[in-house]
Amino acid sequence: MKHDLSISFCNVPCENPFFLSSSCVAGNYDMCSRALEAGWGGIVFKTIGFYQANEVSPRFDTLAHGGVPFGGFRNLEQISDHPLEENLDVLHRLKQAYPQKVLVASIMGETEDEWTKLAKLSEQAGVDLLECNFSCPQMTVKSMGSDVGQSEELVETYCRAVRKGTKLPILAKMTPNIGNMEPVAIAAIRGGADGIAAINTIKSITRLDVAHFNAYPDVDGQSSVSGYSGKAVRPIALRFVNDLARHPQLQNVPISGIGGIETWRDALEFILLGASNVQVTTAVMEYGYRIIDDMLDGLSEYMEEKEISQLSGLVGRALPHIVPSNALRRDYRVLPTFDHAACVGCGRCFLSCRDGAHQAIAWEKGPRKPHLLEEKCVGCHLCTLVCPTQAISPGKRVAKT
Ligand SMILES: Cc1cc2nc3c(=O)[nH]c(=O)nc-3n(C[C@H](O)[C@H](O)[C@H](O)COP(=O)(O)O)c2cc1C
By alpha-carbon position, which residue is closest to atom 3 of ligand 1? Predict the structure, then answer.
């Protein structure tokens, strides 16, 4: 039996916290319908606006890592390339067909008037929430996208314009192409937003075609800087969510966590850092809507194991453990221990310690086994991380002298 994964987000009841994020995975009626039937709790529909995108071909690139094709993913897509009327009609039909699911309209205007009108039209279409896209890094129009999301003034002004057009809860979707996200998020709340969604994609160049001196994807011999997503961005997204969740001026502001979520565990990490909703695109592009099965099962088993009955009880649970670096204890070392039975004698711990750390591992040539030189070991644990057979683990804690 599945645990109850319901949670309230911006005062909207959600049957589970897993939403598709605004992108090509949520771009038409049929796709959204299949995703909702598969078990997703809600959908942030592909960003709509008066502007209709004209896209390039090809428009994606990936950075493979360790046999995983989508280590990181780059896209050159802008907002929807369908007419606004068509998108509004899809939103309307989706809400009628799935009244229990949460439908979010992602909107992007070019002027205050456009933002207000888009808010009004989306509310009329019947959506539950609005998400303001202040963060697409590859818009061809300068007055739209992540340049807007870097300006506190514009974000506040446009949130105010959206608030003028709707009574629905408003999310501001943040750009990570900025040092600190909190001032922009605070400006969004000042302007009338109710919650924050983070992150959109990170400006990037993934790979170069060195034979032709161009970057991928190759668009008639040229390429462009554009948004990076997928598992490679998760640590950056987690950092931003952590920063938002702990800021004194953002207490009790609901956060939707986005960036590199593939599994229930990835999603849980965002929840533990303060998100009460999570969104996914790249993993769905790679594996399909069915990844929701693992997310629902995994999270529900975890809650059962931890004897936590309400998902809200997990939100922000890791925050007290993340402290400024100057607050961390620095008065001891944890020495690694070696399980010689599990060791395959590859020597990687020895090499990494010798060339990348503190020359604290001695190598026995005959039996090909590592031995710790305790006095030289600083307890950095590089050896535990490079060991391919988990034969090295944290051992005794010794006080620094
Ligand atoms: C192909 C593609 C299209 C996207 N289109 C949009 C969009 O229209 N609006 C938006 O707010 N974000 C858009 N995004 C960003 C995603 O919603 C999401 O914020 C980002 O990809 C990080 O999540 P992920 O790692 O799960 O993909 C797009 C991302 C991709 C990969």
Answer: 23
Could you tell me what percentage of the chain is helix, strand and coil, using 3-state DSSP and rounding each to the nearest 5?
35, 25, 40
Pair 130, 158: CB distance under 8 Å: no
Q: Which residues are catalytic?
A: 136
Tens-place pLDDT, residues 215-263: 999 999 999 999 999 999 999 999 999 999 999 999 999 999 999 999 9
Name the DSSP class of 208. Answer: E
Would you say residue 1 has pLDDT above 60? no
Residue 299: which domain range?
A: 7-321
- With 0-12 CB in 10 A as exposed, 13-18 as middle and 19+ as buried, what is 345? middle
Burial of 178 (0-12, 13-18, 19+ CB in 10 A): middle
- Which of 185, 323, 154, 173 minimizes the C-alpha distance to 249? 185
Domain boundary among 298, 321, 344: 321
Q: Nearest C-alpha to atom 1 of ligand 1 is from which residue?
A: 75
Give me the phi and psi of 141, to 5 degrees please: -105, 120
How confident is the model over 157-180, as pLDDT tens digits?
999 999 999 999 999 999 999 999
Q: Which of 51, 141, 229, 231 to mutate to test the pocket of ligand 1 (most atoms within 8 A of CB)?
A: 229
Q: pLDDT over 90 for what percent of the chain?
A: 95
Q: Which residues contact 76 (CB under 8 A, 6 or more apart)?
A: 55, 56, 59, 60, 138, 217, 219, 224, 226
Domain assignment present for 1? no
